[in-house]
C-alpha cells in the first residue's frame, strides 16, 4: 500500500471516531434532558418560549406549558430544548417583570440623585459651565432654526 492510501484510511478512521463520539454524547444529553422533564419544571422550547411544564403525555407526545397564570400552551414534547433551573438565571437578574421595573426605577432614582449632585457649577481656569445643561444620551434637544437660504434669482429680460 502506498502512503497516500494509508493517510486517507487514517483520516477516514478519525472521522468515524468523531461521528460515533458525537452521536453518543448527543444521545446521553437527550437522556439527561428526559430525566429532568417533569411536571413543575421550568422549561424553554426550541422557539424561545419559556414556561412551567404542567403535564406531558408520552403516548401523543403533547406537553402543556403554562406561560402565565391561566395561559396554557400545548406543544410537541420534542420542542422542549432545555430545563431552566435556578443556576441558569444570572445573579442579580430579575426573575419577573415587576422585579425588573423595580430595579429600573431604583436605578433611575440613583441617576437623578447623581445628576443633582453633579449639577453644581464647574469652574476651570477660563471656562464656567453647568454639567446639567448638557443633553444626555437619547435626550431630545430643541431644534435651532436654520436661517433661510437665499438663492440667486435670474432676472427675466423684458
List keywords for this structure.
five-stranded antiparallel sheet, 7 strands, 158 residues, 35% helix, 2 helices, extended, two-stranded antiparallel ribbon, SH3 type barrels
What does the model show?
The protein has 158 residues and is of the alpha+beta class. Among the domains are: 1-36; 37-84, SH3 type barrels; 91-116. It is built from 2 helices and 7 strands. The chain has helices spanning 3-36, 97-118; strands at 42-45, 50-57, 62-68, 71-76, 80-83, 121-123, 128-130. The strands form 2 sheets. It has a 5-stranded antiparallel sheet, with no helix packed on it. Strand 6 (121-123) and strand 7 form a beta hairpin. The longest helix has 34 residues, at 3-36. The protein is extended and about 90 Å long. The model is unreliable at 124-130 (pLDDT under 50).
What spatial form do the alpha-carbon principal axes imply? extended
Helix content: 25-40%
Distance between the termini: 102 Å
**Broad CATH class of the domain at 37-84:** Mainly Beta
Strand content: 15-25%
Number of helices: 2
CATH topology of the domain at 37-84: SH3 type barrels
Radius of gyration: 32 Å
Largest sheet: 5 strands, antiparallel
Strand order of the main beta sheet, please? 4-3-2-1-5
CATH architecture of the domain at 37-84: Roll
How many strand elements? 7
Estimate the mean pLDDT confidence: 79
Counting helices, strands and paired strands, the structural category is: alpha+beta
**Which consecutive residue ranges, at least 5 long each, have pLDDT under 50?**
124-130
Compressed to H and E, one letter per element, the order equals: HEEEEEHEE
Amino acid at each position: 500500500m502506498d502512503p497516500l492510501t494509508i493517510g486517507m484510511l487514517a483520516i477516514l478512521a478519525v472521522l468515524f471516531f468523531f461521528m460515533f463520539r458525537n452521536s453518543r454524547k448527543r444521545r446521553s444529553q437527550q437522556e439527561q434532558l428526559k430525566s429532568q422533564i417533569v411536571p413543575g419544571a421550568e422549561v424553554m422550547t426550541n422557539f424561545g418560549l419559556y414556561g412551567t411544564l404542567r403535564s406531558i403525555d408520552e403516548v401523543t407526545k403533547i406537553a402543556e406549558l403554562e406561560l402565565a397564570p391561566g395561559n396554557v400552551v400545548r406543544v410537541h414534547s420534542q420542542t422542549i430544548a432545555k430545563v431552566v433551573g435556578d443556576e441558569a438565571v444570572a445573579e442579580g437578574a430579575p426573575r419577573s417583570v415587576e422585579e425588573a421595573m423595580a430595579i429600573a426605577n431604583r436605578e433611575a432614582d440613583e441617576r437623578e440623585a447623581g445628576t443633582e449632585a453633579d449639577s453644581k457649577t464647574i469652574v476651570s481656569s477660563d471656562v464656567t459651565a453647568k454639567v446639567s445643561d448638557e443633553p444626555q444620551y437619547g435626550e431630545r434637544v430643541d431644534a435651532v432654526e436654520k436661517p433661510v437660504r437665499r438663492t440667486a434669482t435670474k432676472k427675466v429680460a423684458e
